[in-house]
Specification:
alpha+beta; 20% helix
Length: 107
């Protein structure tokens, strides 16, 4: 089930990656699968402290994060409401805008 205040960023092998609009710090994304939900930092891809669930998928989630960090930052920044306690993230140089699109880092 998705809430009106969340945006689905991706669906990978059944894992649903979402960002919720009105969130607590730090900036993070949610991954849901088979009734489990875990939160990961957008800044470094690490699981948030004391969050449990989806341990079996952690390596896959981290790999996906490395390849999609710029997209996560873009979606996070686009979905921040004015009254959100967590504002937009700084955009790293490797995610600079070109023709209105954030570019993924070169591999």
């Amino acid at each position: 089930m998705r809430f009106l205040t969340e945006k689905q960023v991706a669906k990978i092998h059944g894992l649903s990656v979402t960002i919720q609009a009105n969130e607590h710090p730090p900036p993070h994304f949610h991954v849901r699968y088979a009734g489990e939900d875990a939160s990961f930092s957008i800044a470094d891809g690490e699981r948030l402290p004391e969050v449990r669930g989806l341990e079996k998928w952690e390596r896959n989630i981290f790999k996906w994060w490395k390849d999609n960090r710029c997209q996560l930052i873009r979606v996070w920044n686009q979905t921040r409401p004015r009254d959100c306690q967590v504002g937009p993230m700084d955009v790293p140089t490797e995610c600079v805008e070109t023709e209105g699109q954030l570019q993924e880092p070169s591999r």
